[in-house]
Amino acid sequence: MKKLISFTIKAEFGFFKKPDINDKIFISYNMIHKPSLLGILGAIMGYDGYVQSKDTTQFPEYYQKLKAIRVAIAQAQRMVEFLKKSLFYLTIPPMDKQQILQNKHF
């Protein structure tokens, strides 16, 4: 007998990092993906994850037990587009009081 479970996960801000991006800028998937969902379900059921796994050559317990389940993920609301900006910070060397007083830009 097949069973269906339906639930809603909601948060103000969720970030599901794309592992294929190896840069200083992190990019997120638009919605939750299956590996993250399996991790959440595994945590609810009490299965071990990556941190608890003693053997690093195998997948964690939750993935081994849940990988075969069929998952359908649907977006509940219209997606909100966020403006993406990269911020770069310029650091200056520390100055003593005399240097600060001489420099009129600070």
* Category from helices, strands and their pairing: mainly alpha
Number of strands: 0
Q: How much of the residues is beta strand, in percent?
A: under 5%
Oligomeric state as shown: single chain
Mean pLDDT: 77
Q: Give me the number of helical elements.
A: 3
Largest β sheet strand count, sense and barrel closure:
none
Low-confidence stretches: none
From N to C, what is the helix and strand string?
HHH
Give the CA-based shape: elongated
Please indicate the count of domains. Answer: 1
Keywords, please?
3 helices, 106 residues, mainly alpha, single chain
Task: Please summarize what this structure is.
This protein is mainly α and 106 residues long.
Q: What is the fold's blueprint, element by element?
A:
Elements (H helix, E strand, L loop, with lengths): L33 H12 L15 H6 L30 H6 L4
What does this structure look like?
The protein is mainly α. The protein has one domain. The chain contains three helices and no strands. It has helices at 34-45, 61-66, 97-102. The model has no long low-confidence stretch (mean pLDDT 77).
